[in-house]
Structure formats: structure tokens, C-alpha cells
Amino acid sequence: MEKVCTICAKKSGMSVTLVKLRGKYNPTNKVRKYPNLQWVKLTFGKDAGKRVLACTKCIKRLSKV
């Protein structure tokens, strides 16, 4: 099971945390950030009743349709 939103195809991305210690630029290790995916049932369209993984932004968008 992939960690990808089935509606908008949002996936993980890399980020770097910066530590500003006494004014010095101190990049630390890279960290992989994942989207907030949750199971939701589609209520319209040809896939009505199907459970899919969707990010919270898409769930909010679906509630307004």
C-alpha cells in the first residue's frame, strides 16, 4: 500500500530542519514528511461507496461538493 493520495496524488517529500545555534547555519539530516492520509468513502461518481486513501485537504474539498 503506497502512501499516496488517490485523489490529488500527493506523496511524501523531503525536508531539512535548520538549527540556528548562536547565529550559525547548521543544517541537520533530511527527514521524510508524509501526507496525512485517511480512509474515506466516496459518495458520488462511478466509484460511489468505494473506500480510498485521501489526504485531509481532499477530504475537506469533498465535503463541499
How would you describe what is shown here?
The structure is a single chain. It contains one helix and four strands. It is mainly β and 65 residues long. It has one domain (13-63). The strands form two sheets. It has a two-stranded antiparallel sheet. It has a two-stranded antiparallel ribbon with strand order 3-4. The radius of gyration is 17 Å and the shape is elongated. The model has no long low-confidence stretch (mean pLDDT 88).
Quick recap of the structure?
The chain has 65 residues and is mainly beta. The chain has one helix and four strands, in the order E-E-E-E-H. The longest helix is centred in the last third of the chain and has 8 residues, at 56-63.
Order of strands, widest sheet: 1-2
The tally of structural domains comes to 1
Strand content: 35-45%
State Rg: 17 Å
Count of separate DSSP helical elements: 1
Number of strand elements: 4
Poorly predicted sequence stretches spanning 5 or more consecutive residues: none
The average pLDDT score comes to: 88
Order of helices and strands: EEEEH
Helix percentage range: 10-25%
What's the shape? elongated
* Largest sheet composition: 2 strands, antiparallel
Terminal CA distance: 27 Å
The SS-based structural class is mainly beta
